[in-house]
Amino acid sequence: MAEITLTGYCDRFSVKPGQEIKFMASAEGTDRADVQLVQLIHGDETPGGPGFVEKEVPGPIDGSHSVYQQFTQVGNFARVADPECRLAIEGSFTLWAYVWPTTPAKGRQGILTRWSVETNCGYALGINEAGVLEFWVGDGRKVEAVHAEVELNPRQWYLVAASYERSSGRVFLYQKAVENRYANLWSKVVPLDMNSFVTETLPIAPADAELDFLWAGSNDHNAERGNFVNQLYNGKIDRCGIATHAMSREELDRLRETTPEQSQIFAYWDTSTGYSANGIGDDLIDIGPHQFHARGQNRPVRAATGYNWNGKDDCFRLAPEQFGGVWFHDDAITDCEWQPTFSMKVPELKSGVYAARLRAGEVEDHLCFFIRPKEPKAAIAMLMPTCSYLAYANDRLGLDYPTSQLVSAHVPVFHKWDMELSKHPEYGASTYDSHSDGGGVCYSSRRRPIFNIRPRHRMAGAAVAWQFPADLSVIYWLEKKGYDYDIITDEDLHTEGVTCLSPYQVVINGTHAEYYSEPMMDATEDYLTAGGRVMYLSGNGYYWVVSFRENDLGCMEVRKLDSGSRAWQALPGEHYMASNGERSGIWRNRGRPPQKLVGTGFTSEGMDESKPYRRMPDSYHKSVAWIFDGVEEELIGDFGLAAGGAAGIEIDRYDLSLGTPPHTRILASSEGHSDNYPLVSEEIAFNFPGQGGTQDYRIRADMTYFTTPNNGAVWSPSSIAWGQALPWNEADNNVSVVMGNVLDAFAKPGPLPGHEYDAEEKHWR
Question: pTM for this one?
Answer without folding.
Answer: 0.95
